Hints:
The protein is α/β, with parallel strands linked by helices.
Amino acid sequence: MALFGSSKRSTLQTLSGGEWSTPEERDGLLAELKQSPPRAGELLPLLLHTDPAVRRTAAELFLARPEPGAVRELLESFPRRSPQVRQALLPILGRLPAPLLVSTTDELIDSSERETRQGAWELALALPAELRGRYLLRALGEGPPAIRLRALEELVRGGRVEAHLPAVMAAADSGAPEVRQAALRALASAKDPRVLGVMVGHLADSDEAVQHLAESYLRRAAQEQPQALRAAMTRMLTGGSDESRRLAVDILLANGDPAVVVPDILELCEGLPGWLRSRILDALRSAGERVLKVALGLMQQAGSPTRVPAIMMLSEGFEDPRLTEPFCRLLGDPDWWLRVTACQVLGQLADTRAVPFLVRTLEDPEARWAAVDALAQIGAPESLKPLSQLLRDPRPEVRLDVLQAFSRFSDQRLVTVLQSVSERDPDLEVRERAGEILKDLGRRLEIDTPDTGTKTDPRQLANPIDKLLLKIREMGASDLHLTVGEPPLVRIDGYLRRLDGVGPLAPEHTRAYIAGILDEDQQRRLDEEGGLDFSHITPGVGRYRANAYVQRLGTCASFRVIAQKPPTFAELRLPPQLRDLLDYHQGIIVISGPSGSGKSTTLNALVHILNETRPVHILTLEDPIEFVHSAKTALVNQRQVGRDTESFASGLRAALREDPDVIVVGELRDADTMGMALKAAETGHLVLSTLHTTSAVQTIDRLVDSFPPEEQAQVRTSLSESLKYVICQRLLPHKSGRGRVAAFEIIKGTLSIGSKIRKGETFLIPGLMQIGRQLGMRTRDQALAELVEAGLITPETAWRNAEKPSTFAAQCDPAAIGGAGGGA
């Protein structure tokens, strides 16, 4: 056997090396090979021999007994061969048993090695036609970009695009731009109606060449199949980019009747999220005159589903005098939000024809603030007298709105008005604001203005409780408690103490004190419901947040002192990274902490800095209103729960129709309010709110756990995408023994934090907080350590409030911590 094997190898070697002298000698060697055929794998070199007779004989023997291993080796080497060699091998491949050829090709296509897969695809597309068709569609869907392009070219050459339309449509969604381009060129020749939808989708493609191909097709389709195009393009407006929406509107209007196209698009807007509706309306506005006349007509159609979207579209971007008359009529609409919108539009138009209509709107309590602002924008002298009459309104926020309007006028007649307000108004903030505006007016008019005083003599306070409230403010107290059977109690530096020199309060005293500062409606609610939240202003002194309640012994109340102005970032010692919120246009920021920890103060500090630095519309929902934010750079509208809106949740629903940029929710009290806040954050608004919890991580868990179990997965996803910051704070006694200082525990909504929220792994967040200090994050213990290092609190205070007290034990007096130095 050894000799026989040796003889066979010798024959193969001789043939492979071309070691023969004559054709006869060669034929003899081939005859020997046929008599004792070698294995298929040994014949592979001869399949590529330069001598045709050797190649033919080798092919016959190879095909007579094709072994899977040899076939795989042949197919694997095929893509590496020259075009001439490939051409020579194709007849051999075509004669292989189809099952063996297909299974081996499939095996190579499924290889884990990229080069092997690439070569297998090239082989598959080079196979004989009857087998190549088997791989053509698969290559279109699975092959690398170059293979997909070849498959598309072959379908186009063979006129088979429509026969395999689903596969070509799928290729149009390829990740490779060159494949999408080729697929769209192939589809452009098809007459199938499904192509229209594909082209509409690619109008928003990220590749400009693909966009251009889609746009060219759609402009042709607008003439050939206008109805189908209008339906598809109108639906397309709900997706894609702003540029693709503008392009879609342009295509629709270029070949369609605006009287049909505009209502179709406006009807689509009804029921869409606010942010999406706004972007579609922006696209319509870009068409200018082509949509203006149609929208003006739709605006007059009461009850039509397109009326409100038409009004919304016309409310921005058009400075056309034709809008004045219809928007003046809109001031009489039953919908208060439309009346407010009309005021805003008329202010932007600055057309004096609107002044009489806006003056009448000053009598509308729901739209008054917007009418005041509109009259200020127009600046007509005849509006000064009716605006001045509002300075008699009992509410300081209305008087502040009027003063803000006066700040835009340069009329010398205002000097006397402002001087009177600065000296006589019962509210300190109103007087101070009037004085500021008076000085600014004097500078602008280059005239001398009288000095104004803003202090009120406390002896003028007639109500006993106002005198008491003045006293506690002067003492530096944060709270006053009136309880039957006890002297008044005040909280100073976090500790309650009884007022010296005042005896226990009788039931009739507390009831008289409290009744003296309530109006009829407030007194009725207290009597019927047994409790009432409200705000109180002591003339010449300041504002207080109050809660009155009825208990076993009689009527009681508590008052929280509100500072004259919100604190600054520096005063609160908030980390400078929190100024990121100036760049946020959507998302949610939650300020949490136990009761009495200063959450409202921090919330108002954030509103204050937004008001000073960003030209946005801020809408607040508070119970009650604490700080009054007069408009500065921003437009600020403050609504009080119970007076201006039924609840936080209902106020939020209405707020989404009032075009706010920033929504401030005093407290996330229930799942309904939380759900509306998250919806607002998801739809393009920045939401600021507070929540009663004791840690930053617990704040996230509380938000999720407030919802039913079946909704919590969706809430986690929503929160993971919307959360910008959680600021959890607690007030600690100052090291000096005077005053308190806030410790802030902060979570920033990074991708890593979002991932943990989405997966329900909030227990891992503290670790991310520890390593995220450069981003502005800090754990409670890190915040405490900073306060100790700054000399603001004692190590003992840090030890008592730490999550890991052992961190601070070494710095503490052992006697002060009870010898617990090693405690955890």
